[in-house]
């Protein structure tokens, strides 16, 4: 892993470093709306990759994202995919579309996340934040596994990246009772976020273990970044209450050191392409560096990882096979 990378490293710098690894790859990134780190990752990867599939649940906004990329890289191969991660049926529909593509898939980056807000159930009667951040991505990854496995070769192992957060360590880990039976009386929007991010870390560890070397999965902390998600009405108000944003909705430097969007997307690109990670499956990254010591015990516990996997398969009604 390059020691050149640190807190201030940008996604552009990482992509340039791994241009050879990105070349010829087909990559799918969820959550690519304007003003987010997902689109920044697309912007730098699209300069070198064969194909980048971008996703969103709003067709109009997705088109704007493609236009923004094409403006800078006119020859970039971008494909739009409508995907609503809060609906298992919508995830299945989107996955079927990807599986019909003629190309294999080398890298899947699960970047999309729900904004923090009041308790809400999805169409599948799941808590909205956990559905969007964990159940949807888990099912999507499961359904795209054959497409990922088709990209494997003697010299390449397909990758799955989960954009988690250091916030995974702020809570007590996944609450398996409310996972299956969401309860508005027990709901706390920050705790829900902490649990969803814990689930991301556990899933990366367990996916790497279960695949037996066929798929390498990683999770990461992108940094604290002033993205579009913090500017959504519900999230913005809660972040002001939390003390992360001031009364005008602007970042407060007291609690955290903030990253720019280009800095915030750097670790995602590292997790997707750094060849030195090949023998470190399941790792957690921070500042584009392996930081497994930063994983909270509840999110590195193999028993918890297996328990979450089994519970998730039961809830989505599908078994993950390789």
From TrEMBL:
The keyword Transcription regulation does not apply. Coiled coil: none annotated. InterPro entries: NAD(P)-bd_dom_sf, SDR_fam. SUPFAM superfamilies: NAD(P)-binding Rossmann-fold domains. GO terms for molecular function: oxidoreductase activity. Transmembrane segments: none annotated. Keywords: Oxidoreductase. Pfam families: adh_short (PF00106). PANTHER family: RETINOL DEHYDROGENASE, RETINOL DEHYDROGENASE 11. Belongs to the short-chain dehydrogenases/reductases (SDR) family. This is Short-chain dehydrogenase/reductase family protein. The lineage of its organism: Eukaryota, Fungi, Dikarya, Basidiomycota, Agaricomycotina.
